[in-house]
Design goal:
This protein is an alpha+beta fold. It contains 3 helices and 6 strands. It is globular and about 45 Å long.
Length: 149
């Protein structure tokens, strides 16, 4: 079952590549836990659509996928161009909600954890570099680099 769960997540990334960012919602169960909050597949699809509206050329490519038990962890690269205005307070912690497009590109790593049941995602958690993304978009100042040692 562990290998099948990994294959399912690989298939999800392939589906994103072939059919668009929101197509991944079909890999989620009708009812699931997303970052500790009970949601349904339509809510997941709405979050994905908000990301797509904000970054119309969004790409999410897997770098590593590992699995243990009913959990699959994917380290992936997310990239896109900020061409839209985010609406959802649930996407990127609301960081881009109402923010006018900068027209700038970003590329940052994410780590997503998926708990699988019957071939579907029933729980999802993610660790994202939203600060790095915001810096690349010009929304936050670059980090100060210290030479003190």
């Amino acid at each position: 079952m562990i290998e099948q769960n990994k294959v399912t997540i690989w298939q999800m990334f392939k589906t994103i590549e072939q059919n668009g960012f929101t197509a991944q919602s079909e890999f989620f169960a009708d009812h699931l836990i997303n970052h500790g909050i009970p949601v349904n597949r339509d809510m997941v699809r709405a979050i994905l659509q908000d990301i797509l509206n904000t970054f119309p050329d969004v790409k999410m490519a897997p770098l590593h996928i590992v699995a243990e038990g009913d959990w699959v962890v994917a380290r992936c690269m997310l990239s896109g161009t900020h061409k839209g205005i985010g609406q959802s307070p649930f996407v990127h912690e609301g960081l881009l909600a109402g923010v006018p497009p900068t027209g700038k590109n970003f590329k940052t790593e994410h780590i997503h954890m998926f708990r699988m049941e019957d071939g579907l995602i029933v729980e999802h958690w993610a660790a994202r570099n939203d600060v790095g993304m915001a810096r690349q978009l010009g929304l936050l100042p670059e980090a100060a680099i210290s030479t003190a040692g």
